[in-house]
Amino acid sequence: MSSVLVTRRLPSSVISKLEASATVDLYAGDAAIAPAELRARVADKDALVSLLTDAIDRSLIDAGPKLKVIANVAVGYNNIDVAYARSRGIVVTHTPNVLTESVADFTWAMILAITRRLSEGERVVRRGEWKGWALDFMLGMELRGKQLGLVGVGRIGAAVAARAPAFGMRVVYTEPRDVDLPNAENISLDRVLNTSDIVSLHVPLMPETRHLIDKKALARMKRSAYLINTARGPVVDEAALAWALQQHLLAGAALDVYENEPAVHPDLLALDNVLLVPHLASATTETRTAMADLAVDNVLAVLAGRPPLTPVPAE
Length: 315
Ligand code: GLV
Description:
Layout: E1 2-6, H1 12-19, E2 22-26, H2 35-42, E3 47-50, H3 58-62, E4 69-72, H4 82-87, E5 91-93, H5 100-115, H6 118-126, E6 147-151, H7 155-163, E7 170-174, E8 184-187, H8 189-195, E9 198-201, H9 215-220, E10 226-229, H10 238-246, E11 252-255, H11 266-269, E12 274-276, H12 285-303
Parallel strand pairs: 1-2, 1-3, 3-4, 4-5, 6-7, 6-9, 7-8, 9-10, 10-11, 11-12
């Protein structure tokens, strides 16, 4: 039987399916497996089911000489040195499609929450500082008639755009486009930043997108605009974002992802016009189960000599 290392607890139905065809070594700790332990335990494995919190770098890949497949339980795969794995003949897979709708829903939850000041208002109530209803108390921004600017449009960006008509928003998006969006205008990043009321990030993390939203980009945004990040933390320069918010260069930001998770830049923690949530965009029972299930199906396919269902795309 092939042997598989799984670096975090997965739903029991998914583990049972894997156990029917392979010997499973499950790391059952509450936090991410330590790199040294991961290296030790991968040594005799044919397959690895990894999480986005595991750094699958050269040293880890070299520590697993028998590896045939690395199946990441995430759509993003910036935690894996894909080029090196491929050079060693290892198949790398991810979990697209199954999380698209839950991440798009969550993006809208964040858009609504930051523009209507939900977490800020909740903090006021919990602190006992609410003095009662007033006509001009904690006014937010209406979405109807405003512009949603998508930076990066793949599956998730397209699903976010599909929900925009329900809120009366028009959509613009940056080049290069992967998807043809109906009723949306394809414009430059500069114009997206300069003209949108909501800027929502949906690019993968790559060398070209690291700090794509830096001081200069933030300064291009409308002072009344909001930035939403459900993509990857390092796409935004967090220190620059804190500075821009302190300078009132934009109205607010909603972040699900951070540069050094689980750390959050201290200046952001001190600001009221920032919504901070702990990397939850795909976190529904249904979606997380489907992600784990797809990762395991990828492992089983490769171990059986079949092509994987969802390999990471070619460079
Ligand atoms: C989550 O961040 C993912 O990439 O699936």
